[in-house]
């Protein structure tokens, strides 16, 4: 793309440990390094801010000092004034609104020189089960583009939400490792916030069954923090694997490569996902994944039988069987891991950034 443009990313909260935030900071840094003027705006302060980029080359702004929650009328007026002032100060370009809630709060405040682009980080399957589909149908068709995580999701939203402006851009990998895991370690990884939607209780149950069948000294390492930690500890004890489930807490982004390199299998047991970066990051290190088939994004990351294994959503028995099969076979882990790494090439940051710049070109053509 010739010449840098202004790109503003607006998030409900830009600094919590989460998928939307991680993608936003990765793309912001990449575009800034390509010569664009980039701003990341968080409407609210994060309760526990997480640092995604050590040396950001983009500007970062937080509108409210309070975490996400209901706004008083006075706070709403202050938001309008602060956002309006900030948006008037930036040059012409694009405003990427990263969720339905952000679209409804920010769209009307954008000056004409900032062209609105709506992102949706979830899957069509999740959207149709909650208010998101109604909001996307109502608001995203009026934007310059509506961006989804996979070609299949973009098509389904265009058909079911009657959107004439869909586009697909996957989440980017923050980096590409030169070395891959040897897959010899007896370690299953679970990566994500310890919250209900991630259903790590199901992963623990599946691991317990698989561990009984393999009879080896395997461990399940859960990397992340959240409100479910104590309950998950109790569940591990009830499953008889309290000494085999290791709660690692939050690991800095800069050290996650070491964690993937020390793993042999990644397990994903969420109720719903968009395009979970943990699957792509594991794959980039040559680590195969076993996952519930909950979205087009998951399917785009895990090519079943070729670069990982998918099982029916919420089927703990099937998850245990798939995990156990990989835990019992180093050659099968290596076969799937090598294919997973090759498959993950499509999610390298430079390719995803090219896709963003293609989008900008099309919008302004």
Automatic annotation (TrEMBL):
A GO term, aspect molecular function: glycosyltransferase activity
InterPro entries with a match to the protein in the record: Glyco_trans_1, Glyco_trans_4-like_N
Residue spans crossing the bilayer: none
Every Glycosyl transferase family domain range: 186-342
Pfam families in the cross-refs: Glyco_transf_4, Glycos_transf_1
Assigned keywords, A-Z: Glycosyltransferase, Transferase
Keyword Transferase part of the UniProt annotation: yes
Source domain of life: Bacteria
Domain Glycosyltransferase subfamily 4-like N-terminal: 18-133
Keyword Secreted: no
Name this polypeptide is given: Glycosyltransferase involved in cell wall biosynthesis
Organism: Streptosporangium becharense
């Amino acid at each position: 793309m010739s010449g840098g443009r202004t790109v503003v990313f607006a998030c409900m909260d830009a600094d919590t440990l989460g998928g939307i935030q991680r993608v936003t900071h990765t793309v912001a840094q990449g575009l800034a390094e390509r010569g664009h003027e980039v701003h990341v705006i968080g409407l609210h302060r994060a309760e526990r801010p997480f640092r995604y980029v050590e040396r950001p080359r983009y500007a970062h702004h937080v509108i409210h000092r309070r975490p996400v929650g209901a706004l008083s009328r006075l706070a709403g007026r202050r938001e309008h004034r602060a956002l309006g002032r900030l948006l008037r100060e930036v040059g012409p370009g694009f405003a990427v609104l990263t969720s339905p809630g952000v679209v409804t709060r920010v769209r009307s405040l954008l000056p004409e020189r900032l062209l609105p682009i709506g992102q949706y980080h979830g899957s069509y399957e999740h959207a149709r089960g909650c208010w998101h589909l109604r909001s996307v149908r109502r608001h995203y068709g009026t934007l310059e583009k509506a961006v989804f995580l996979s070609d299949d999701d973009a098509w389904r939203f265009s058909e079911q939400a009657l959107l004439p402006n869909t586009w697909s851009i996957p989440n980017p990998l923050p980096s590409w490792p030169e070395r891959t895991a040897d897959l010899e370690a007896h370690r299953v990884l679970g990566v994500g916030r310890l919250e209900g939607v991630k259903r790590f209780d199901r992963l623990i149950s599946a691991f317990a069954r698989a561990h009984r069948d393999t009879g080896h000294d395997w461990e399940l390492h859960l990397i992340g923090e959240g409100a479910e930690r104590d309950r998950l500890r109790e569940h591990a004890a009830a499953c008889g694997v309290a000494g085999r489930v290791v709660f690692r807490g939050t690991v800095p982004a800069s050290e996650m490569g070491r964690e993937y390199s020390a793993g042999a299998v990644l397990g994903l047991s969420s109720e719903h996902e968009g395009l979970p970066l943990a699957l792509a990051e594991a794959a980039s290190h040559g680590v195969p994944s076993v996952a519930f088939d909950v979205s087009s994004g998951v399917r785009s990351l895990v090519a079943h039988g070729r670069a990982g294994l998918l099982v029916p959503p919420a089927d703990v028995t099937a998850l245990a069987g798939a995990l156990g099969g990989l835990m019992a076979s180093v050659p099968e882990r290596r076969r799937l891991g090598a294919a997973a790494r090759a498959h993950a090439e499509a999610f390298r940051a430079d390719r995803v950034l090219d896709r963003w710049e293609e989008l900008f070109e099309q919008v302004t053509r």
